[in-house]
TrEMBL record:
Record-linked PANTHER family: ATP SYNTHASE PROTEIN 8 (PTHR39937)
Signal peptide: none
Keyword Transmembrane helix: yes
Compartmental location: Mitochondrion membrane
Keyword match Phosphoprotein: no
Assigned protein family: Belongs to the ATPase protein 8 family.
UniProt-listed InterPro entries: ATP8_metazoa (IPR001421), ATPase_protein_8 (IPR050635)
This protein's encoding gene: ATP8
Protein name, entry field: ATP synthase complex subunit 8
Lineage per the UniProt record: Eukaryota, Metazoa, Chordata, Craniata, Vertebrata
A GO BP annotation: proton motive force-driven ATP synthesis
Any Gene Ontology CC annotation: proton-transporting ATP synthase complex
Keywords for this protein: ATP synthesis, CF(0), Hydrogen ion transport, Ion transport, Membrane, Mitochondrion, Transmembrane, Transmembrane helix, Transport
Main subcellular location: mitochondrion
UniProt GO molecular function: proton transmembrane transporter activity
Length: 55
């Protein structure tokens, strides 16, 4: 069965992943900026315990 022969396809897959991870991905990541951190102070909400009618 020719589809089980990994000879040409393994090399093509490895070269394409190396090209993506070494060349294309760093160029794309330079355009993506993370959200700047905010100085907002988060307060925890006051919670009251649930009152069960049978206790």
């Amino acid at each position: 069965m020719p589809q089980l022969n990994p000879n040409p396809w393994l090399f093509i897959m490895l070269i394409s992943w190396l090209t993506f991870s070494m060349i294309i991905q760093p160029k794309i990541l330079t355009f993506v900026s993370a959200n700047p951190p905010s100085n907002k102070v988060y307060s925890t909400p006051k919670t009251t315990p649930w009152t069960w009618p049978w206790t």
